[in-house]
Design a protein that fits this description.
The chain has about 90 residues and is mostly helical. It has a single domain, classed as Orthogonal Bundle (434 Repressor (Amino-terminal Domain)). It contains five helices and no strands. The longest helix has 29 residues. It is globular and about 40 Å long.
Length: about 90
């Protein structure tokens, strides 16, 4: 049981990393910065920056609102993040 749990934790960390990397790639591609989106969403910049950097867990409603602010469909984002995860070298 302990080994299965560790494997699942590692998978979750890898998926989270892929999501954060994809979110940052979307910011870069859009030319919109974190400060602009934080202001648009009415969220404190430092709090939002911590979400985007992975220093704090991002609430799902903030995540969906961020994608909307960047004009990215949820299914497109998830597909891109999954592709990023699938193409990542094994650690």
């Amino acid at each position: 049981m302990g080994r299965v749990f560790r494997v699942e934790q590692e998978n979750a960390r890898n998926y989270t990393k892929a999501i954060l990397e994809q979110l940052n790639a979307e910011f870069a591609a859009s030319g919109t910065d974190v400060k602009q989106v934080a202001a648009k969403l009415g969220i404190d910049y430092n709090t939002f920056r911590r979400y985007v950097n992975g220093e704090r867990g991002m609430p799902m409603h903030v995540f969906w609102a961020t994608l909307a602010a960047l004009d990215i469909a949820e299914d497109v984002f998830v597909r891109r993040a999954r592709e990023r995860l699938d193409s990542a070298p094994a650690e």
